[in-house]
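Can anyone check this?
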Amino acid sequence: MVTEAERYTNLLRQVEAEVTSRWGEGRLQPTKERIAALIDLLGQPQRNYRSIHLTGTNGKTTTARMVDELLRGFGLRTGRFTSPHLSDITERIVVDGEHVSARTFVEGYREIAPYLELVDGQFDIQLSFFEVMVALAYSIFADAPVDVAIVEVGLGGEWDATNVIDAEVAVVTPIDLDHVQYLGDSVASIAAEKAGIIKPGAAAIMAAQPADAAAELLRRAVSVEASVAREGLEFGVLERRVAVGGQVMTLQGLAGVYDEIFLPLHGAHQAENAVCALAAVEAFFGAGAETGPIDVETVRAAFAAVRSPGRLEAVRSAPTILLDAAHNPHGMAASVAAIAEAFDFRRLIGVVAVLEDKDVIGMLERLEPALDEVVVTQNGSLRARPADELAAQAVLVFGADRVTVEPRLDDAIEAAVRLAEDTGDDLLSGSGVLVTGSVVTAGEARVLLGGGS
């Protein structure tokens, strides 16, 4: 006999197949006409709650998770929309810290489905997968209901489907080159697109940025009379030290100094994400130098509870297996620095699978000094770069004697474990495997290795 849970799980897979058959999220068309039409038909659900909007090249998802933990620590009911997901589509829509259930997802989709058909009939191009997911998330948040939504853009900013919200706080994490075919081939052009989430009268929280990117962001903020807080000026990381399982930080927020903050994530980049999240929450609450800090104990408890799956996540030991979703040179450099700081590997083997449109050579060049050998493979995405093509590029960076090719990800992980174990002695405590190159790669490896949600 099929249980209700099993029935909804089966229905979820049917809905997922229907939604993912639409235009994929890896493409950008510079218009919000379709999503605006759909949101109008749904009664503008995003107007039912306050919101914090995040863009940037790297760190968006983790920063969103931190903002979520902080807001819930202060007693607010939250909705969080992030992308892409690691292993299950429901990960994208989170209410009060938990992925929505299969039942909530299916029933939410059923409610909006008739309106999808109406909008599809109005335009030459049907609603995309991502547009449907945005509308579904906003509707679920309104039905929950939530007090505040934390929303990560999908791609860019101004023309992103999420940008039908008018968030009172806009967070811009570090900007670098990525998705250049859609956003432009300079950090300035990319920043100009991402700056579109900064709305009139909002508070703009800006991570440390390249000069050209900072100029574009400030230009936008001035034009819409948004207030601005910048990492390194109005807020920043004062001190950090490595600790067991993460790091301990002293953070300068907008409203004061917060010390002895434990964060169970590795790397300077995660400390920078943390202080951006803190500043965003302070701005959301209207806290500043005049009001003094928000409750320090609540802040400490929230950061200690942060989890960010697939971000230097250890899922096995002896040898240690780390999963990391870095998918561009900037992100890869941050991950490599964090590994050097937090782990004492005597031998580290990489497993790398990337998507077709990425700067592969740039990523491999950042990885090369950290790895003894690399196993190149292919993930399950339709946009995956074939393993043999990736191997040819890896040979240019690593040399042929340090490159192994395994077309299947499971075989690649097994091969990397064998290579990591080949230490010449019986001690495996200094051996590791790093699986990286894409969110898809980290997610698929997580499923293979039995990682939780």
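Reply from J.R.: I decoded it. The mean pLDDT is 93.
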